[in-house]
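A quick word before the example. In earlier lectures we treated sequence and structure as two separate objects. From today on, think of them as two lines of the same record. Here is TatD DNase domain containing 3 written that way.
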Amino acid sequence: MHGYIDCHCHISADDFDSDIGDVIEDSKRAGLVALLAVAEHAGEFEKIIQLSQRFPGFIMPCLGVHPVQDPGQPRGASLEDLDAALPLIDKHKDHIVAIGEVGLDFTPRVVNNDAGKDSQRKVLIRQAEIAKQLNLPLNVHSRSAGRPTIHLLKQLGVENALLHAFDGKPSVAMEGVKAGYFFSIPPSIIRSDQKQKLVKQVPLESMCLETDAPALGPEKQVRNVPKNISISAEYIAKIKGIPLETVMEVTTQNALHLFPKLKSFIKP
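And the structure line, produced from the sequence above:
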């Protein structure tokens, strides 16, 4: 399959409401063949499903509960947040390609005590169980919690996981690589020393592409869009000293391997 796959994108964000059609057209022109739309809370599940029906074979839904809830007053996710999501995950289980966005976020303004961290862990454990039951991979967030997230995933016997926009040390990422996990790289790599170091060390065979649009774009505070996926690919090619074509081919094959349902859903 020739083209890019955006493995982690918030296409249901309000930022895209006014021009979603143009954003998708621009993405396709830039070489995207699919994008995985991740959820943060149960309230946006139906919107993601509707977008996947409006753009069939291109927007691929992932449903899950993010470790941070209520962005206005950020707090760690609780099992109550998950309770609202479970019936909808069950309802749409045949149409989703992953459980996500799930994970841990130990940023001090989100959670600053052991009880809060433990609550997030319980939510992740439960979602890992659901993913296993449905034979789906996890689309994982791990801000300020790289090592605890990888250790918990390994402990739970999770085999298929994408660690998106990983902010930990390359040595910690390599523990994930050894466990068979993949790492997706956003366009913000062009302004992030940490992401550049990560790409130097993580093998291309363990890498995918993402935009995390509308966040993590090439410029701070500017809306990121899925067509910027090519910026991630070009920068990886530059760091690794390999052709752009190779980055496109290998990352797309990695995505198809990690998210097997994509093969039957993508419209050629």
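Notice the following. DSSP finds ten helices and ten strands in the chain. We will return to this example when we discuss secondary structure assignment.
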